[in-house]
Structures are given as C-alpha cells and as structure tokens.
Amino acid sequence: MTTILFELGCEELPPKSLKPLRDSLQSSVESQLKEADIAYDSLKAFAAPRRLAIQIEGIADKQPDRTEQKRGPAIKAAFDADGNPTRAAEGFAKGLGIDVSELTTIKTDKGDYIGYEQTIIGQPVTELLPEIFQNALDKLPIAKRMRSGASREEFVRPVQWVVLMQDDHVIESTIQGLSSNNQSRGHRFHAPDFMTIAHAADYEKTLEEAKVVADFDKRQALISERVAALASEVNATPIIPQDLLDEVTALVDLPVALRASFEERFLQVPQEALIKTMQADQKYFCLTDADGKLQPYFIFISNIESKDPQQVIYGNEKVVRPRLADAEFFFLQDQKQPLFTLTENLKTRVFQDQLGTIWEKSERVAKLAAYIAALMKEQGQDIDVAETTRAAILSKADLASTLVGEFPELQGIAGTYYARLNGEPEAVAAAIEEQYLPKFSGDKLPSTPIGICLALADRLDTLVGIFGIDQAPTGSKDPFSLRRSAIGVLRILIEKELPINLVSLVEQAIRNYNTDGEGKLAKLGETFTKVIDFINSRYRAMYTEQGVSVDTIQAVQAINPHMPLDFDQRIRAVTDFRTLPQAATLAEINKRVANILAKSEGDVAESVDAGLLTEDAEKALHEAVTKAQNTVAPMQEHADYKGILQTLTQLETPLTNFFDHVMVNSDDASLKANRLALLKQVRELFLLVADVGELQA
What CA–CA distances, in Å, run from 537 to 540, 542, 554, 560, 647? Predict the structure, then answer.
C-alpha cells in the first residue's frame, strides 16, 4: 500500500472554473479507479491558481487477478456427429491461443456451449495511472482549450510541469506532452523556483513551506475566518456571497486578509450600487452593520505577505475610489429631474418589436395592476388603487436612468431610491423594487400589497404578449423567462393566500392589449388557451421540487381548478389523504368507477331511486353516500378539502361490499341505470377535491 501524487502545473487557471475543474478531476479519477478495480484508502483533490493535483493514499500495487469466462459456439455447432471439432470450434480456440482439447462445456438455460476460463493477470498500478490521469484531464469541463507554442497538446492554460510520484520515486510517463518528475513550484513571488517533492505524502506540507495552501477548502476556510475577524474589529458583518468566496479562493495561493476604507460621503449612493461595483469589479467583501446598512469599510484578500501592508491597503483604496465616484456621479445626475420625467424616454424604447414600447407596457401593467388591486380591496386588503396605478406608471422609469444604464441589475432598486427622494408615498416607492420579486427559484416574494399587484401584472402582461405573437419558449430557449414568470405568478397567488381566479387575470391582460377590439394580438381565444395551459403546466415543476408526487399533481389537475390558492389547498389535502390506510383501496375503486361510467351508454341520472335498490350492499352504499353528501356540504363552502377526503374514507367498506355483491351491469335496464346513478354520486363526491383515481398504489 503506497501513496500516489499527481500534479499538473499551469499558468493561472480561470478562477471561476477552478472549483468545477477540481471536482471533475476527482470524480473522473475515482470512477476510473473503480472501473479498473484498483483499491485505495483515500483520495484527495487539490486546486490552487497554478495547479490541480490528486493525492491517493493506501493504493494497491496492482489490480487483482481475475477469471474471465469466454463463451463460444453451441456444442452442436462445435462438434460433428462423430465428436470431432468443427471449424467453428477450431477458430474459437485459435482466437484464444489455446488447443481445442482445453475447451470446456458451459451449460445455460438456452443450451450447452463450448467455452474457456482464462485468468487475467492484474496490471501494475503504476502502468495504469498515467492513462487514468490523462483521460481525466481530457474529460474536464473546459469550454475552450488552447495550445501553447509549438505543442499540439491542448488545455485550458499552458501547462508548465507535471509531477507523478509513487512514494519517493517518480513514475516515468508523458502527460499533456510533458515528462513527469518530482519538481514543482511554490508561490509565484515568495517561492518562484522549482523545488523537489521528497515524498508523495509530503505534498501539502512541502507546498505550505513554499507559501502555497494547496487545499481549496482549507484556503477558503482561512479566508472566511480572517474576513470575519477583521469585520468584528469594527463591529460589522461581512457580506460573503458563495460565488465571490469561490472566486477569491481561486485567485490566491496564500490568502492575506486586509481591511480598507472609503469616504463616508459615498454612502449616500444606493448601497446596492456600491456593493455591486466592489464585489464584481474588485472582488472585495463589503461590511454592514446589524441593520444591514453598508459601512465605509471593505476587506480584500491579497496574494502576498507584504512587508508594508499599509501600502497595499492604500493602493486598493486608491483603485476603488474612482469606481465609487462614478456611481455617485450617476446617482446625482439622475436626481436633476423627477423620476416621472424619465418615463418620456420610455416612449422610444422598445419592449418587443411586435408589442411596442416600454411605455406602452407600463400603461398595460398599470391597468392590470389596478384591476388586481380592486379585487384585493374587495377581499378586505388595505390597498389604494390610485397609488397602485401611480406605482405601475413609475415602475419602469428607472430603466432610462444613468445609474441603471451603468448597473442594469439595479433596475427597480434605483427607482425605489428616486421615488423616495421625489416624495412619492412609501407604498409606491417600495413597490417599484418589489415588482421584480421573485427573481429566481426560492427567492423572497413581494411583501407589500402594491408590490404584489405590480409583480403579478408585469409577469402576466409579458406572458400574454409573448404567447400572443407566437414566441412561446421552445426546448431550453426561453429568452423572456416565461417559465420563471409563470411560477412567480403561482407562488405569489398561493403563498400570499390570494383567492383570485387566474382565468380572470389572463382575460384582463388580453383585453389590455386589444382595447376596443383593436390591438396587437390576433387569435385571442388561442392566446388565452395557450397562456392558461402554460401556467398550469408549471404546477408540476413547482410541486415536484417540493417533493409532491406526480400522480398527486395529476389528480388535482384532472379537475382543472382555476384558482392557484385553491389548487394548492387540494394538493395538500390529497397529499394527506395518501397517508391514510383507506387511500389505496379508494383510489383503485375510483378508477374502476370512472371506467364503468365512461363505458356507459347515454346520460347517467343525477338522482337515485331508493325504491329500485334491491341488494343490501347497494342500500348500504346509498345510505353512506347520502350521509357523506350532507356531511361534506358545509366543508365544501369553506374549502375544507382535507375534511372532505377524511369523511369520504368512510365509504371504503360500503364500496368494497358493493362491488363484491352487486352486479352493476344488470340485465334489468332500470336496475343498471339506478346503480350507475349511485356510482355517479360516489364519483362526484370525490371530484369535489380531486380525481383520486389518478393516484398510483
């Protein structure tokens, strides 16, 4: 049992790709070792700006020997009537390099065959590893590979050295066109010369002495700890997005955290703009107070241990100042005119070529938002319809601002700042930012009533418009993010517990496009159907992500509820129903009832004639159904779907007895019709919640 070390040394690797490259290299090597049946105790991957490495502890010296059975032609084809080998048998033996006399008989269910068991000697691991590592490098997720100089070898960056060792000696090989050795390099500035790795097990320690923390996770933990410590010194909390932390970790061999500051006057600028420019452009960690307000400090990670850290801090402060000054300039420039004035520029900015300008979209959104606000007001929500309209008209104004022109991700956020500076009501200002929520899967929802109206109206207007001009998403192409918009609509209506009919919202959105019968959309009925079907299709993606089974979703979709909140309540009820002991039997019976009714000829009566009930089992079922109808009636009024299904579990025994003792398709037409009517009532009771016949055992 020995230790293997493989290291590929390069020019600085792409920082955003370093972690995926490490993970892919490790995964590929592990799978190849498993496929080759090579045993080992542990495998660890390393990744730093100029290297990718694999260290394998306790690896076997060779593959285990194995026996492999080769099967040839059938006995009948291998030997003639006199028992002499045919050409088929001789050819099979020759191919294996053996004599016909060494062949054996393999007995199978399909007959007897000639065969041979050969022992395959396991290869030494040192002979297999070079190819394993080269294959792993070839399979790395590299979008574009490059060649360096006259070399024909390709990689993401020019390769400078290759280390491949078993314990204290080199495994001779050629990888990426370079001969392997035991020579590596340390930190580019602190230890730039080649150094010898004495033993494969000493890799991490040797590099640490050369000022390189090779373990990506260890380096990242050091950064997090040091950033937190520096932040605590000024009673602040660092903002550490995982993507930024990964990128910074990939940029340095030797993380040295330093804290710097900037002028407090910049804090008047929307902090989102300052944070964005410091994170995206400078890779800095920003600091906030306990209330989330930006503080005039930032922490950066240096890749050198400077003899004069203050000079490094000064240099970073000098670099960031003009960037913050740019954001300040844009912010002050925009304030020279009211936010509403910026809407004039929207009249020449195209939303979509066939759907008009952004200003026209704002007008449609205002109408739809006001319609939603009126519905919410009727339901007892504290919302001002006039303020909702005002917020919608201003909602896209910041798209014409210089700040959003420089920082597109601040759309909505900038508008909220400007609305507050202009003295707009807080409800109006807050809604401008909230219109874009949720921005991604699992993101927070708008919290204010007007923000909810804008978020719904904006998404529905886009959905109706894009489907109306036949630009529906295809495959992975969804340039207007319609799938995300549809799920956003459903989440808002469900999680904000808004009992609003989706059909009415889509109809109103369509009317806003085609005022007075003339407008931008043709085939209105077709557009309506496509939009409703598309939004309904998002239920499956949304609920399966929550762990709800597909057949539960199908059971509810079968009755096509038009209110997302109602749909959700039914989903919860069916999910609970499935846990009950009677569920499987009732699901199967419902499926049977549906099939019987589907095959019946003519219309089935709505009522049951008690006088035609002859069998005890059908009388008992009729009594149980009547009782259930009376019990669930008030539950239906309050949408108590869990209560309804709980009540209907009492039908399990009478239904089972009915099908055990009663012939539905009686020769007597009147008896048959009456029994079908009874089953129809059973079916309609369950359909008050969902088609439980869709549920699988």
Answer: 6, 9, 10, 11, 30
Among candidate residues 164, 192, 209, the one where a domain is terminated: 209
Give the N- to C-terminal CA distance of the chain in Å, as an integer: 51
Domain that holds residue 579: 574-694
Residue with the two structure tokens 């290869």:
123
Q: Which DSSP helix (H) or strand (E) runs through 161?
A: strand 159-166
Total number of domains constituting the chain: 5
Of 198, 304, 290, 301, residue with least CA distance to 235: 290
Q: How far apart (Å, rounded) are the C-alpha atoms in residues 434 and 430?
A: 6
Residue with tokens 């808004």: 498
Q: Are residues 360 and 459 in the same domain?
A: yes
Task: Tell me the C-alpha distance between 23 and 18, whole Å.
Answer: 9
Count other C-beta atoms under 10 Å from residue 20's C-beta.
15
Burial of 232 (0-12, 13-18, 19+ CB in 10 A): exposed
The ranges of the chain with pLDDT < 50 are: none
* The last residue of a domain, from among 87, 119, 151: 119
What's the token pair of residue 10? 């390069």
Q: Tell me the CATH number at 591.
A: 1.10.730.10
Using CA atoms, how far residue 476 sits from 479, 480, 481, in Å, is: 9, 12, 11
Tokens describing residue 61: 């010296």
Residue 435 and residue 446 in contact, taking contact as beta carbons nearer than 8 Å:
yes
CATH number of the domain residue 129 falls in = 3.30.70
Could you give phi then psi for residue 304, rounded to 5 degrees? -135, 155
d(CA 585, CA 355): 53
Closest to 462 in 3D by CA, of 452, 472, 450: 472
- Closest alpha carbon to 418 in 406, 434, 401: 401
Q: What is the CATH number of the domain that holds 487?
A: 1.10.3210
* Residue 152, number of CB atoms within 10 A of its CB: 7
Element (H, E) at 66: strand 66-74
Distances (CA, A) of 525 to 241, 456, 470, 505, 507: 46, 21, 13, 14, 10
Going by C-alpha positions, the residue among 528, 448, 543 that lies closest to residue 490 is 543
Integer Cα distance of 617 and 653 in angstroms:
10
Locus of tokens 């597909």:
550
- Residue 482 exposed, middle or buried by CB count within 10 Å (0-12, 13-18, 19+): buried
The Cα–Cα gap between 466 and 510 comes to 11
Q: What is the pLDDT of residues 79-119, one digit of tens each?
A: 888 888 888 888 888 888 888 888 888 888 888 888 888 77
Per residue in 628-663, pLDDT tens? 999 999 999 999 999 999 999 999 999 999 999 889
Distance of alpha carbon 275 from alpha carbon 93, whole angstroms: 75
Taking the C-alpha atoms of residue 519 and residue 510, their distance in angstroms, rounded to an integer, is 10
- Sign, CA torsion 310/311/313/317: positive
Length of the chain: 697
State the burial class of residue 678 (Cβ atoms within 10 Å of its Cβ: 0-12, 13-18, 19+). buried
- 3-state DSSP assignment of residue 102: helix
In angstroms, the CA 558 to CA 687 distance is 9
The owner of tokens 């009930």 is 613
Q: For 10, phi and psi rounded to 5 degrees?
A: -135, 175
pLDDT of 73? 86
The answer to whether residues 166 and 3 touch, using CB atoms and an 8 Å cutoff, is yes
Helix then strand then coil, % of the chain, to nearest 5: 55, 15, 30
CA distance 227 to 219: 12
Please, which residues bridge with residue 118 across strands? 68
Amino acid 84: pLDDT: 87
Phi-psi region of 448 (alpha: psi -120 to 50; beta: other; left: phi over 0): beta
As a whole number of angstroms, the distance between CA 215 and CA 196 comes to 19
Q: Are residues 429 and 539 in the same domain?
A: yes
pTM of the model: 0.81
